[in-house]
């Protein structure tokens, strides 16, 4: 089907919202009929890029996002058109490989959506495989952990959270469902930067409002204590996974607004914390490589070391998603306090509930302050309007 709506003279908010829903219905119907839906937006306010367009896959997974962002464009007086572009490519078709190559897909190019529909379709399929939950269940705020104990703490906070539909999945997810996908999702992504990249590659197509890592770290400063929290301001990326796609010369920092909400939550919970650079490595036994790792740690003034947060932050930057990190010091290997089994188990039980509660508190503050999404101009290219930003 084809549907076009000119919002230039449609001033009534209720009617406008109804027309946006009708456009989204048409997007879903086009997908269900076997074609990629293409959305074209004529933006009369833009002198240099009046028309931008994009194709979509499995639109039900991002229906909340489409309604919100197309609603912003409609409020600006855009003309929006939905039509079938081409038949869907089966995930088993060898032709899919070419469409998945991001090296040939300029992420800076002006477009309505950041991903090709083939990439979206495959990522949503893999997301369901890894997490054991439909991508439609994912909420706008995503927590990443690599500990089952944080899952336990999350489920204690949200007893009605919906989890995997089958046992034994690799990266189980739990979703606190709220209207408009305004709840929080927790994913146990496992250990290491490879897992961190894998899951964020796929979550990115859902366009979450925020991604936040809660994990453990090795403290690197004398005045840190076991159980203290670390709020990352920047990242020393020594994991190596994204160096080709995103050179280490590109500065990666936590989202300023999200860190502000984390600071407020830390203060409300009267938690001990320190802010600074986190050193992310692919080597769990980094302390065995004293000369190599320590020289980078000293040069970067890092205050903590972990294996995931810099990778998540780098992928968040690549895919224009606000990210932040709140870690808990579990050991201090440079100060005679390596992670030992008995002490670690005591620490885990004592820290998990507060750690997750602070992270959830911060995300709820972010949601209340920015119901239409956190500011993200700092992670978008200067020439890159996406959906309802209203920019030229």
Topology (elements, then pairings):
Layout lengths: L2 E4 L6 H20 L2 E8 L8 E5 L7 H13 L3 E9 L8 H5 L16 H15 L9 E5 L2 H10 L15 E4 L7 E5 L4 H11 L6 E10 L9 E10 L17 H13 L4 E9 L8 H11 L3 E3 L2 H10 L4 E9 L9 H29 L23
Parallel strand pairs: 5-7, 5-8, 8-12, 9-10, 10-11
Antiparallel strand pairs: 1-4, 2-3, 2-4, 6-7, 8-11, 9-12
Helix pairs in contact: 1-2, 4-6, 5-10, 6-9, 7-10
Which properties best describe this structure?
single chain, 392 residues, alpha/beta, Rossmann fold, 2 domains, 5-stranded mixed barrel, 4-stranded antiparallel β-sheet, 12 strands, 35% helix, globular
Short description:
The protein is an alpha/beta fold.
What does the model show?
The protein is an alpha/beta fold and 392 residues long. The chain has helices at 13-32, 63-75, 96-100, 117-131, 148-157, 193-203, 256-268, 290-300, 309-318, 341-369; strands at 3-6, 35-42, 51-55, 79-87, 141-145, 173-176, 184-188, 210-219, 229-238, 273-281, 304-306, 323-331. α1 packs across α2. The relative contact order is 0.14. The model has no long low-confidence stretch (mean pLDDT 90).
Q: What CATH architecture label of the largest domain applies?
A: 3-Layer(aba) Sandwich
Detail the poorly predicted runs: none
Give the number of DSSP strands. 12
Helicity level: 25-40%
Work out the strand percent: 15-25%
Briefly, what CATH class of the largest domain?
Answer: Alpha Beta
Helix and strand pattern: EHEEHEHHEHEEHEEHEHEHEH
What is the CATH topology descriptor of the largest domain? Rossmann fold
- Average predicted local confidence, pLDDT: 90
């Amino acid at each position: 089907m084809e549907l076009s709506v000119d919002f230039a003279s449609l001033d009534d908010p209720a009617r406008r919202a109804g027309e946006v829903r009708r456009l989204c219905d048409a997007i879903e119907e086009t997908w269900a009929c076997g074609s990629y839906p293409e959305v074209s937006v004529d933006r009369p306010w833009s002198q240099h890029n009046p028309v931008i367009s994009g194709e979509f896959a499995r639109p039900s997974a991002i229906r909340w996002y489409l309604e919100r962002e197309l609603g912003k464009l409609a409020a600006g007086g855009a003309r929006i058109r939905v039509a079938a572009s081409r038949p869907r490519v089966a995930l088993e078709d060898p032709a899919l490989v070419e469409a998945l190559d991001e090296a040939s897909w300029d992420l800076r190019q002006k477009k309505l959506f950041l991903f090709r529909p083939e990439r979206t379709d495959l990522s949503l399929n893999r997301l369901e495989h890894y997490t054991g939950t439909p991508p439609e269940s994912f909420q706008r705020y995503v927590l990443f952990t690599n500990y089952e104990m944080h899952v336990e703490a999350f489920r204690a906070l949200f007893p009605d959270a919906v989890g995997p539909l089958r046992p034994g999945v690799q990266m189980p997810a739990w979703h606190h469902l709220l209207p408009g996908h305004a709840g929080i999702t927790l994913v146990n992504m496992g250990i290491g930067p490879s897992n961190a990249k894998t899951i964020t590659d796929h979550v990115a197509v859902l366009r979450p409002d925020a991604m936040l890592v809660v994990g453990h770290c090795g403290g690197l400063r004398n005045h840190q204590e076991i159980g203290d929290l670390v709020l990352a301001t920047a990242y020393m990326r020594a994991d190596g996974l994204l160096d080709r796609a995103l050179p280490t010369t590109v500065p990666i920092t936590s989202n300023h607004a999200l860190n502000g909400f984390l600071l407020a939550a830390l203060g409300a919970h009267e938690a001990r914390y320190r802010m600074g650079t986190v050193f992310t490595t692919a080597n769990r036994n980094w302390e065995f490589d004293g000369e190599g790792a320590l020289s980078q740690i000293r040069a970067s003034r890092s205050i903590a070391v972990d294996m995931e947060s810099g990778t998540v932050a780098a992928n968040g930057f690549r895919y224009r998603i606000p990210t932040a990190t709140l870690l808990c010091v579990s050991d201090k290997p440079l100060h005679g306090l390596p992670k030992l089994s008995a002490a670690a188990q005591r620490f885990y039980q004592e820290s998990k509930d507060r750690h997750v509660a602070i992270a959830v508190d911060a995300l709820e503050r972010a949601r209340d302050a920015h119901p239409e999404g956190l500011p993200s101009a700092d992670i978008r290219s200067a020439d890159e309007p996406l959906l309802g930003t209203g920019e030229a």
